[in-house]
Amino acid sequence: MDWDGAYRQEAGFDGPPPWNIGEPQPELAALAAAGKFRSDVLDAGCGYAELSLALAADGYTVHGVDLTPTAIAAATKAAADRGLSNATYEQADITTFGGHDGRFNTIVDSTLFHSLPIEGRDDYLRTVHRAAADGAGYFVLVFAKGAFPAEWEQKPNEVDEDELRTAVSKHWQVDEIRPAFIHAFIPPAPADSDVPMPEHDRDEKGRMKLPAYLLSAHKAG
Ligand SMILES: C[S@@+](CC[C@H](N)C(=O)[O-])C[C@H]1O[C@@H](n2cnc3c(N)ncnc32)[C@H](O)[C@@H]1O
Protein backbone atom coordinates (compact mmCIF):
# COMPACT_ATOMS: atom_id res chain seq x y z
CA MET A 1 0.00 0.00 0.00
CA ASP A 2 1.32 3.41 -1.01
CA TRP A 3 0.15 5.32 2.07
CA ASP A 4 1.63 8.65 1.09
CA GLY A 5 0.16 8.29 -2.39
CA ALA A 6 -3.25 7.73 -0.79
CA TYR A 7 -2.99 11.07 1.01
CA ARG A 8 -1.71 12.77 -2.15
CA GLN A 9 -4.75 11.24 -3.91
CA GLU A 10 -2.53 9.30 -6.29
CA ALA A 11 -3.20 5.77 -5.05
CA GLY A 12 -6.33 4.73 -6.90
CA PHE A 13 -9.01 6.06 -4.56
CA ASP A 14 -11.56 8.33 -6.18
CA GLY A 15 -10.77 11.38 -3.99
CA PRO A 16 -9.53 11.44 -0.40
CA PRO A 17 -8.88 8.04 1.21
CA PRO A 18 -12.08 6.48 2.55
CA TRP A 19 -10.85 6.49 6.17
CA ASN A 20 -10.48 10.31 6.20
CA ILE A 21 -13.89 10.97 7.69
CA GLY A 22 -13.09 14.44 9.07
CA GLU A 23 -13.66 13.40 12.68
CA PRO A 24 -12.52 10.65 15.06
CA GLN A 25 -13.88 7.16 14.51
CA PRO A 26 -17.15 7.15 16.52
CA GLU A 27 -16.16 4.05 18.56
CA LEU A 28 -13.01 5.84 19.78
CA ALA A 29 -14.80 9.16 20.33
CA ALA A 30 -17.20 7.21 22.59
CA LEU A 31 -14.27 5.83 24.62
CA ALA A 32 -12.90 9.35 25.02
CA ALA A 33 -16.32 10.63 26.12
CA ALA A 34 -16.47 7.79 28.66
CA GLY A 35 -13.19 9.01 30.20
CA LYS A 36 -11.10 6.00 29.17
CA PHE A 37 -8.10 8.03 27.98
CA ARG A 38 -5.36 9.65 30.08
CA SER A 39 -2.50 11.94 28.99
CA ASP A 40 -0.05 11.55 27.44
CA VAL A 41 -1.79 9.89 24.50
CA LEU A 42 0.01 8.23 21.60
CA ASP A 43 -1.99 8.21 18.32
CA ALA A 44 -0.31 5.30 16.52
CA GLY A 45 -0.64 5.51 12.72
CA CYS A 46 -2.39 8.84 13.19
CA GLY A 47 -2.97 9.80 9.55
CA TYR A 48 -4.68 13.19 9.52
CA ALA A 49 -5.00 12.74 13.30
CA GLU A 50 -8.63 13.75 13.82
CA LEU A 51 -8.66 11.67 17.00
CA SER A 52 -5.61 13.19 18.68
CA LEU A 53 -6.48 16.70 17.47
CA ALA A 54 -9.90 16.35 19.12
CA LEU A 55 -8.29 15.04 22.31
CA ALA A 56 -5.80 17.92 22.29
CA ALA A 57 -8.68 20.38 21.95
CA ASP A 58 -10.09 18.79 25.11
CA GLY A 59 -6.80 19.41 26.95
CA TYR A 60 -4.96 16.10 26.51
CA THR A 61 -1.27 16.09 25.64
CA VAL A 62 -1.00 14.01 22.47
CA HIS A 63 1.68 12.75 20.14
CA GLY A 64 0.95 11.21 16.75
CA VAL A 65 3.15 8.96 14.65
CA ASP A 66 2.70 8.05 11.01
CA LEU A 67 4.81 6.72 8.18
CA THR A 68 3.80 9.33 5.66
CA PRO A 69 5.18 12.85 5.39
CA THR A 70 1.95 14.12 3.83
CA ALA A 71 -0.20 13.06 6.78
CA ILE A 72 2.31 14.33 9.34
CA ALA A 73 2.54 17.70 7.58
CA ALA A 74 -1.28 17.94 7.54
CA ALA A 75 -1.60 16.99 11.22
CA THR A 76 1.16 19.41 12.25
CA LYS A 77 -0.48 22.22 10.29
CA ALA A 78 -3.91 21.45 11.74
CA ALA A 79 -2.46 21.56 15.27
CA ALA A 80 -0.86 24.95 14.55
CA ASP A 81 -4.01 26.30 12.88
CA ARG A 82 -6.08 25.24 15.90
CA GLY A 83 -3.56 26.66 18.41
CA LEU A 84 -2.88 23.22 19.91
CA SER A 85 0.69 23.37 21.26
CA ASN A 86 -0.13 20.20 23.25
CA ALA A 87 -0.31 18.16 20.00
CA THR A 88 2.93 17.03 18.33
CA TYR A 89 3.47 14.81 15.31
CA GLU A 90 6.38 12.70 14.14
CA GLN A 91 7.11 10.82 10.94
CA ALA A 92 8.30 7.32 11.85
CA ASP A 93 7.73 3.67 11.09
CA ILE A 94 5.76 2.33 14.05
CA THR A 95 7.52 -1.04 13.82
CA THR A 96 10.82 0.64 14.74
CA PHE A 97 9.42 3.60 16.69
CA GLY A 98 11.47 4.67 19.73
CA GLY A 99 12.61 7.58 21.86
CA HIS A 100 9.58 7.80 24.18
CA ASP A 101 10.14 4.88 26.56
CA GLY A 102 7.55 4.72 29.36
CA ARG A 103 5.91 8.02 28.37
CA PHE A 104 2.31 7.32 27.33
CA ASN A 105 -0.64 6.56 29.59
CA THR A 106 -2.86 5.81 26.60
CA ILE A 107 -2.08 4.33 23.21
CA VAL A 108 -4.78 4.46 20.56
CA ASP A 109 -4.72 2.58 17.28
CA SER A 110 -7.43 3.96 15.01
CA THR A 111 -7.35 1.42 12.14
CA LEU A 112 -3.56 1.00 12.03
CA PHE A 113 -3.43 -2.68 13.06
CA HIS A 114 -4.97 -4.02 9.84
CA SER A 115 -2.84 -1.59 7.80
CA LEU A 116 0.40 -3.29 8.80
CA PRO A 117 1.77 -6.40 7.13
CA ILE A 118 1.08 -9.41 9.36
CA GLU A 119 4.80 -9.94 9.85
CA GLY A 120 5.10 -6.36 11.19
CA ARG A 121 2.53 -6.79 13.97
CA ASP A 122 4.83 -8.14 16.64
CA ASP A 123 7.44 -5.40 16.20
CA TYR A 124 4.66 -2.80 16.33
CA LEU A 125 3.16 -4.27 19.49
CA ARG A 126 6.61 -4.29 21.09
CA THR A 127 7.46 -0.66 20.21
CA VAL A 128 4.19 0.74 21.55
CA HIS A 129 4.46 -1.41 24.69
CA ARG A 130 7.92 0.04 25.29
CA ALA A 131 6.54 3.56 24.83
CA ALA A 132 3.75 2.92 27.37
CA ALA A 133 3.89 3.79 31.09
CA ASP A 134 3.10 1.06 33.62
CA GLY A 135 -0.68 0.62 33.76
CA ALA A 136 -1.21 2.39 30.41
CA GLY A 137 -4.32 1.65 28.38
CA TYR A 138 -4.12 0.31 24.82
CA PHE A 139 -7.11 0.53 22.45
CA VAL A 140 -7.31 -0.93 18.94
CA LEU A 141 -10.06 -0.48 16.35
CA VAL A 142 -9.46 -3.04 13.59
CA PHE A 143 -11.43 -4.58 10.69
CA ALA A 144 -13.03 -7.95 11.38
CA LYS A 145 -12.90 -10.73 8.81
CA GLY A 146 -15.82 -10.30 6.43
CA ALA A 147 -15.48 -6.54 6.17
CA PHE A 148 -14.19 -7.01 2.61
CA PRO A 149 -14.89 -9.75 0.06
CA ALA A 150 -12.85 -12.92 0.66
CA GLU A 151 -11.95 -12.95 -3.05
CA TRP A 152 -10.12 -9.63 -2.95
CA GLU A 153 -6.36 -10.12 -3.05
CA GLN A 154 -5.56 -6.58 -1.97
CA LYS A 155 -7.37 -5.49 1.16
CA PRO A 156 -6.61 -4.65 4.79
CA ASN A 157 -5.36 -7.47 7.03
CA GLU A 158 -8.70 -8.13 8.73
CA VAL A 159 -8.58 -10.23 11.91
CA ASP A 160 -10.70 -12.73 13.76
CA GLU A 161 -11.04 -12.46 17.52
CA ASP A 162 -8.62 -15.30 18.38
CA GLU A 163 -5.95 -13.98 16.03
CA LEU A 164 -6.22 -10.50 17.56
CA ARG A 165 -6.14 -11.80 21.14
CA THR A 166 -3.17 -14.09 20.46
CA ALA A 167 -1.11 -11.35 18.80
CA VAL A 168 -1.79 -8.63 21.37
CA SER A 169 -1.55 -10.80 24.49
CA LYS A 170 2.11 -11.57 23.77
CA HIS A 171 2.81 -8.05 25.01
CA TRP A 172 -0.34 -6.65 26.67
CA GLN A 173 -2.96 -7.75 29.21
CA VAL A 174 -6.11 -7.99 27.10
CA ASP A 175 -9.21 -6.81 28.99
CA GLU A 176 -11.92 -6.97 26.33
CA ILE A 177 -12.52 -7.56 22.64
CA ARG A 178 -15.97 -6.67 21.40
CA PRO A 179 -17.67 -6.25 18.02
CA ALA A 180 -17.59 -2.67 16.73
CA PHE A 181 -17.76 -0.65 13.52
CA ILE A 182 -15.31 1.32 11.39
CA HIS A 183 -17.04 4.14 9.51
CA ALA A 184 -15.66 4.86 6.03
CA PHE A 185 -16.65 6.69 2.87
CA ILE A 186 -17.16 3.78 0.50
CA PRO A 187 -19.40 4.46 -2.51
CA PRO A 188 -22.10 2.00 -3.56
CA ALA A 189 -20.65 -0.81 -5.70
CA PRO A 190 -20.97 -0.30 -9.47
CA ALA A 191 -23.51 -2.69 -11.02
CA ASP A 192 -20.79 -4.34 -13.15
CA SER A 193 -18.31 -5.11 -10.30
CA ASP A 194 -16.92 -8.65 -10.52
CA VAL A 195 -16.72 -9.02 -6.74
CA PRO A 196 -18.53 -6.05 -5.14
CA MET A 197 -18.17 -4.84 -1.57
CA PRO A 198 -20.77 -6.33 0.76
CA GLU A 199 -23.56 -3.77 1.32
CA HIS A 200 -22.93 -3.19 5.03
CA ASP A 201 -25.27 -0.77 6.81
CA ARG A 202 -24.60 2.95 6.58
CA ASP A 203 -24.66 5.63 9.28
CA GLU A 204 -26.74 8.83 9.25
CA LYS A 205 -23.96 10.58 7.29
CA GLY A 206 -24.02 7.93 4.54
CA ARG A 207 -20.76 6.30 5.62
CA MET A 208 -20.45 2.54 5.47
CA LYS A 209 -20.25 0.80 8.86
CA LEU A 210 -17.76 -2.01 8.36
CA PRO A 211 -17.50 -4.85 10.88
CA ALA A 212 -14.61 -4.41 13.28
CA TYR A 213 -13.34 -5.26 16.74
CA LEU A 214 -12.58 -2.84 19.53
CA LEU A 215 -9.84 -4.21 21.78
CA SER A 216 -9.04 -2.78 25.22
CA ALA A 217 -5.85 -3.82 26.99
CA HIS A 218 -3.38 -2.46 29.52
CA LYS A 219 0.28 -2.69 30.41
CA ALA A 220 0.92 -4.61 33.60
CA GLY A 221 2.35 -2.70 36.51
C1 LIG B 1 -6.30 3.39 7.61
S1 LIG B 1 -5.17 4.67 7.96
C2 LIG B 1 -5.79 5.30 9.51
C3 LIG B 1 -5.33 6.70 9.81
C4 LIG B 1 -5.92 7.33 11.09
N1 LIG B 1 -5.49 6.63 12.29
C5 LIG B 1 -7.42 7.41 11.02
O1 LIG B 1 -8.12 6.80 11.84
O2 LIG B 1 -7.90 8.13 10.12
C6 LIG B 1 -3.71 3.80 8.47
C7 LIG B 1 -2.54 4.72 8.75
O3 LIG B 1 -1.42 3.92 9.19
C8 LIG B 1 -0.24 4.48 8.64
N2 LIG B 1 0.79 3.45 8.60
C9 LIG B 1 0.83 2.34 7.85
N3 LIG B 1 1.95 1.63 8.11
C10 LIG B 1 2.63 2.32 9.07
C11 LIG B 1 3.86 2.12 9.75
N4 LIG B 1 4.62 1.05 9.51
N5 LIG B 1 4.25 3.03 10.66
C12 LIG B 1 3.48 4.14 10.92
N6 LIG B 1 2.30 4.37 10.29
C13 LIG B 1 1.88 3.49 9.38
C14 LIG B 1 -0.66 4.96 7.25
O4 LIG B 1 0.20 5.91 6.72
C15 LIG B 1 -2.06 5.51 7.55
O5 LIG B 1 -2.02 6.87 7.88
Automatic annotation (TrEMBL):
Organism: Mycobacterium cookii
Keywords per UniProt: Methyltransferase, S-adenosyl-L-methionine, Transferase
Annotated Gene3D superfamilies: Vaccinia Virus protein VP39
Record bears the keyword S-adenosyl-L-methionine: yes
SUPFAM superfamilies per UniProt: S-adenosyl-L-methionine-dependent methyltransferases
Swiss-Prot/TrEMBL GO biological process terms: methylation
KW Lipoprotein (keyword) present: no
Cited Pfam families: Methyltransf_25
UniProt-recorded name of the protein: Methyltransferase domain-containing protein
Annotated ranges, domain Methyltransferase: 41-134
Recorded superkingdom: Bacteria
